[in-house]
């Protein structure tokens, strides 16, 4: 058995290829199938199966595209109610691939369709692909589909299902079974995911909070509290993955490419994905700065939080060299359908942001309206400035009108990335106000 882990850093997403002889299976593939195709070719293997551990909320899977292009069978639990060609993979169902047997363990809790996939070879239970059920140091939250209409009652039901899952579904497995989760640190699918890439079931039994709490009420309370915010696009992605999504090339062909853009407007949202300094120095009127300069930028999360799933938008980039990379990242959350154009900025001066002066602010804080765009729980846990107003970034498009403009507005977050987005949103809403992005200067106050 040969296992390869693939990482899509912006969404802290892990997917897997498992090879036995001349055949290969994939677990929870990302939107771009090329890395799996290349790996199969390198190993002279044919892709015969794709396993979906559940309907993903934070990324679009390429399961349907892989099926269409390779003939591989897609295996998914019946509770997913998948609309694409597939084979139901329910509790204790098995699939044999040369000397590997894959067995389904039904593990509801994160969602009703969640499964884990046990890979056995030579009668040894070797690897457990845990999806969003069991992470390293954490477990999957039960509320990601609430934006799609799920209630508090459903969240509690799922939390109780997760308790049953943790208490009973892995009890027959040895401590040395290797855990391969679908997400790691930085994912919004849990609240305390480790940066480690793999673990063992024994280590998780000893160290993960989920295995330490044996009281159901206490477990439910812990699982349902303190979870991160839910981006707008999550429920949209669940439905997209239920239907199955085709090639990105179709949508790429419909995107207009403009060299030297000179105007923008409020009729369609303009997202400027250049670095914050480039944006502050020169940008189109009404544009919002969501940086996409490297893999550590959480562009996907914030694009999917600020732009609604069916809302059209256009993008500004640094150069033509960034076109394909930017499009691929946008497509990872299914927003390529909404993308109207990708442009570079034309020559000439457009709009500028005011520059933040650290010394003046430090000595005259009372002269400023301070806006903290961190999540509510972050704000309440560690308030940086006593008189700061909390306007969480994921709600700022709707709430910006409530920010006082009688003083210069200083925007901060925890590191500088979100404050760039937040200050540009406030600047877009109140163009006559003096809006200042504190950026990385926040680190001097932490």
Automatic annotation (TrEMBL):
Residues 364-443 form the Rhodanese domain. Keywords: Hydrolase, Metal-binding. Pfam families: Lactamase_B, Rhodanese. It comes from the Bacteria. GO terms for molecular function: hydrolase activity; metal ion binding; sulfur dioxygenase activity. Transmembrane segments: none annotated. GO terms for biological process: glutathione metabolic process; hydrogen sulfide metabolic process. This is Glyoxylase-like metal-dependent hydrolase (Beta-lactamase superfamily II). SMART domains: Lactamase_B (SM00849). The keyword Magnesium does not apply.
């Amino acid at each position: 058995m040969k296992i390869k882990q693939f990482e899509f850093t912006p969404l802290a997403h892990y997917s897997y290829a498992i090879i036995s002889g001349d055949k290969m299976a994939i677990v929870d593939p990302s939107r771009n199938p090329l890395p799996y195709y290349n790996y199969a070719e390198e190993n002279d293997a044919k892709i015969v199966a794709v396993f979906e551990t559940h309907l993903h909320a934070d990324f679009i899977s390429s399961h349907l595209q892989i099926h269409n292009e390779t003939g591989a069978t897609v295996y998914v639990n019946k509770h997913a109610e998948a609309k694409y060609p597939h084979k139901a993979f329910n509790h204790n169902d098995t699939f044999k691939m040369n000397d590997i047997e894959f067995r389904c363990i039904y593990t509801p809790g994160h969602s009703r369709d969640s499964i884990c996939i046990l890979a056995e070879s030579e009668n040894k239970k070797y690897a457990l692909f845990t999806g969003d059920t069991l992470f390293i140091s954490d477990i999957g939250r039960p509320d990601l589909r609430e934006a799609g209409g799920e209630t508090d009652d459903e969240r509690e039901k799922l939390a109780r299902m997760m308790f049953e899952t943790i208490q009973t579904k892995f009890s027959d497995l040895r401590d040395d079974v290797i855990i391969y989760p679908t997400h790691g640190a930085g994912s919004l699918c849990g609240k305390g995911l480790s940066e480690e890439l793999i673990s063992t079931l024994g280590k998780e039994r000893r160290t993960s909070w989920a295995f330490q709490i044996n009281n159901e009420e206490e477990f439910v309370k812990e699982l349902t509290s303190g979870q991160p915010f839910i981006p707008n696009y999550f429920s949209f992605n669940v439905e997209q993955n239920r239907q199955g999504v085709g090639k990105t090339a179709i949508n790429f062909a419909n995107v207009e490419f403009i060299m030297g853009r000179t105007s923008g407007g409020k009729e369609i949202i303009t997202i400027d994905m250049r670095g914050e300094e480039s944006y502050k120095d020169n940008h189109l009127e009404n544009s919002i700065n969501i940086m996409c300069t490297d893999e550590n930028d959480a562009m996907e999360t914030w694009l999917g939080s600020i732009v609604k799933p069916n809302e059209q938008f256009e993008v500004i980039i640094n150069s033509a060299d960034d076109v394909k990379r930017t499009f691929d990242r946008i497509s990872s959350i299914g927003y390529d359908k909404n993308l109207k154009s990708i442009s570079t900025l034309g020559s000439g001066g457009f709009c500028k942001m005011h520059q933040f002066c650290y010394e003046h602010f430090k000595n005259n804080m009372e002269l400023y309206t301070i806006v903290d765009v961190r999540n509510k729980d972050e704000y309440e846990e560690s308030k940086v400035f006593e008189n700061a107003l909390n306007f969480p970034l994921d709600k700022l498009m709707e709430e910006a009108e409530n920010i006082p403009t009688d003083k210069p507005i200083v925007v901060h977050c925890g590191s500088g990335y979100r404050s760039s987005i937040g200050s540009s949103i406030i600047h877009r809403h109140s163009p006559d106000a003096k809006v200042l992005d504190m950026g990385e200067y926040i680190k001097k106050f932490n």
